[in-house]
Amino acid sequence: MTTTTLAALVPLLPFLGAVAGLALGRTAPGFVRPLAILPTLTAAVLAVIVAVRQGGGRAIDAATQLTPTGSVPIDLALHLDGFAVLTAVLVGLVATCVQLYSTAYLRDDARYPSYAALVSLFTSAMLLVVYSGDLMVLLVGWEIMGICSYFLVGHYWETPEARAASLKAFLVTKLGDVPFLIGLFALAADTGSFRITEILAAVAHGGLDHPTLIALLLLAGVAGKSAQFPLHTWLPDAMAGPTPVSALIHAATMVAAGIYFVARLLPVFAASDAALTVLAVMAAVTMIGSGLAALAQDDIKRVLAYSTIGQLGYMSGALAVGDRGAAVFHLLSHGAFKAVLFLAAGVVIHAAGTNSLAAMSRMGGLARRVPDAYWTMTVALLALAAIPPFAGFFSKEAVLVAAEHTALGERTVAPAAAGWTVLLAGLLAAVLTAAYATRLWLLAFRGRGAELPDHGGQPLAMTSVLWVLAAPTIAFGLAAGLLGDWFDGHALTPSLTTAVLSTGVGLVGGLVTYGAWRHTTALAARTPIGAVAAHPGAEPALVEAEAMTSHTAAYGTIADAADPADPGRLILGPLHRHAVTGFHLDALYTALFVRPVQQAARLVRFLDRTVIDTYVNGSGAVTRLLGTAVRRAQTGNVQTYLSVLLAGSLVLVIAAVVFANVNAGS
Q1: How, if at all, do strands 60-67 and 450-451 pair?
Q2: CA neighbor of 347 nearest in space, from 286, 381, 301, 406
Q3: Is 568 within 8 Å of 576 (Cβ atoms)?
Q4: Which has the least CB within 10 A, 192, 194, 376, 628?
Q5: Which of 407, 473, 480, 396 is nearest to 434 (CA)?
Q6: Which spans are transmembrane here (predicted)?
């Protein structure tokens, strides 16, 4: 088969698996798991073959007109360059591991057939975004991911946290999608095409009439989809969904889609210095704010969620300084180690019976109970903290090197101010990243207290995929030197200055956190924390749902725990109460948008029920009164009818005579 045929099968196979899984979920449940795993696994294998055939060389394009529109045509197009084929491999690998993991994680879940089908559809939609060469077709995958996230985040719909999180994720991302759609149409109007290759050619020849407006409209959609400030607030709450869904969203789909979109269309954004500056500021605020928030969270998954927001900020920063190679490099390495972190967190939650780091810090022996999760999570946290030689070190260094070159004027794609903004924010975020990664590891695996009961080993389907994903977490950075052709042909090697700076500040962040932990750990024995309500011997998904409910019941919120032994509380000081709430952005949005909309809805309801309904009901009442009067005249007595007829006739005759005399007299 040709490379384009294989590429067309990559998104098609998970889609067919989703359709078949939904169709056979009730009638033949034995086929559900094979239909969830095999199409996705096959798609991953085909994606590897496509990547090998493409080889980082010239992009492969194929297209056929989908439908005539009368103006700008819409094509069913493939665009296979180095970025696309490597990203598709990541999506296929993570999705396959998530499907395997889910067979054990939701082994007794009655809704597993629909869950597995939605994961396959989610995967298909992301692969469509990755391979698509036409923006309208890309938009189809973009929106399908949005609706899939709504259903998957709300999988535990019995819990209020999941219901609220799914609705919030849908509404916030749709808020960004409205200007995004306007931007797509404006871009097509300026360039005369939805084809990515034709758009880029038009931009290269100065074909954009409104570059700043278009870029800013598109950035709104990217901010929503990739959880960047100020539309990032949905992502931490989305942790109310199953852990494998969190891994899929954070590592390989949805949030990666926005970054990938900007990388694909970077010349459009580079046509406006103002847009790149806005992107740089957005990335800087996102990196620093999310790092502070992660340091204050008690829910282990919310720590990782804010971590994702911050790492996406690094990717946005790389794009803001005009280096899409560094951005996609970090996207790929982050996808590997973040999938490990979330899937390992699921194992930890199952074993501990809680998602609370405060509760875990009072448990002994957790590391011995889950050795696979312990070692793979340790490796992934080192990669997250950008400690060499793990993948995160090389990819984060590529971002900082790109920012350094722009700041010093060695690259002129973006303004120097954007370079300095990204570089300084990236170094500060490196301190925070190392700090919250160290805090998570210490609280989860170095707890002191009663020995954790042994509930047996974790399912092989859950632990084996951790090692599969740990391999690229360890080796991908070392192999990046061999993949230069896939990244626009330029090297992604670290520079001595940024490597020493970022590693040094990261070590400082880790050591400060360790010192704070040593200072506060004695308090843990004196302060009981009682958020463990789930039984670790139950199904992992049930344990997670109960852990969320018990956390909120014990502490009043999913984000915080009043734990004086928390080193994050000591490090942040008075800033902690603001950081734990995400700096009150939800409260601000509630005051600025939610409450005014609710008040407007109440006003509309009042006008509808009190004013409009009064007129409608009044007209009905008048008609009813007239009908009553006429009905009373209908007595059924013939003599009465004749008398009325004669009286009426007499009145008409008299009126006619009077009228005639009046006319004659005049």
Answers
A1: unpaired
A2: 301
A3: yes
A4: 628
A5: 396
A6: 35-52, 83-106, 112-130, 137-157, 169-187, 199-223, 243-263, 275-296, 339-361, 373-394, 414-438, 459-484, 496-517, 641-662
For 665, counting Cβ atoms within 10 Å of its Cβ (0-12 exposed, 13-18 middle, 19+ buried), the class is: exposed
Count of beta carbons in the 10 Å neighbourhood of residue 122: 29
- What is the 8-class DSSP label of residue 494? P
Of 427, 429, 430, which is closest to residue 387 (Cα–Cα)? 430
Residue 490, both tokens: 């330029």
Centroid of chain to Cα 352: 27
Nearest to 283 by CA among 308, 316, 309: 316
Residue 438: predicted pLDDT: 96
Residue pair 257/142 in contact (Cβ under 8 Å)? The answer is yes
Sign of torsion over alpha carbons 166, 172, 173, 177 = positive
Judge if the upstream peptide bond of residue 230 is cis by omega within 30 degrees of 0. Answer: yes
Distance CA 378, CA 390 (A): 11
Pairing relationship of beta strands 60-67 and 74-80 according to DSSP bridges: antiparallel
Burial of 605 (0-12, 13-18, 19+ CB in 10 A): exposed
Distances, alpha carbon 509 to alpha carbons 430, 433, 571, 663, in Å: 8, 8, 10, 109
359, amino acid identity: A
Please give the Cα distance from 526 to 522 (Å, whole number).
7
Residue type, 519: H
Q: For residue 181, what are the contacts with CB-CB under 8 A and spacing of at least 6?
A: 139, 221
Type of residue at 504: G
| Helices 324-352/391-407 angle, 10° precision | 140
* Exposure b/e, 548-566, CB count within 10 A at least 16 = b: bbbbbebbeebbbbebebb
Residue 377, classified by CB atoms within 10 Å of its CB into exposed (0-12), middle (13-18) or buried (19+), is buried
- Beta-bridge partners for 65: 75
Check the CA dihedral 378-381-386-391 and report its sign.
positive
Tokens (6 digits) for 164 = 């609220």
User: Burial level of 637, CB count in 10 A (0-12/13-18/19+)?
Assistant: exposed
Q: Which residue, 115, 520, 536, 123, is CA-closest to 358?
A: 520
Report d(CA 666, CA 662) in Å as an integer.
6
Query: Residue 538: its pLDDT value, please?
Result: 66
* Residues paired with 75 in a beta bridge: 65
Burial class (CB in 10 A: 0-12, 13-18, 19+), 38: middle
Give, to the nearest 10 degrees, the angle between helix 82-105 and helix 243-251: 180
Positive or negative torsion for Cα 368, 373, 379, 380: negative
Residue 596: exposure state from Cβ atoms within 10 A (0-12, 13-18, ≥19): exposed
User: Is the CA virtual torsion 240, 241, 243, 246 positive or negative?
Assistant: negative
Amino acid at 282: M
* Radius of gyration of the chain, Cα coordinates, nearest whole angstrom: 31
List the beta bridge partners of residue 61.
79
Residues (pLDDT < 50) of the chain are 533
CA distance 542 to 534: 8
Q: How far is CA 81 from the centre of its chain?
A: 25
d(CA 551, CA 114): 28
Distance CA 589, CA 583 (A): 11
Cβ burial, residue 614 (10 Å; 0-12/13-18/19+): exposed
Contact between 306 and 291 under an 8 Å Cβ cutoff? The reply is yes
3-state secondary structure of 443: helix
Residue 461's contacts (CB-CB under 8 Å, 6 or more residues apart) are 100, 101, 103, 104
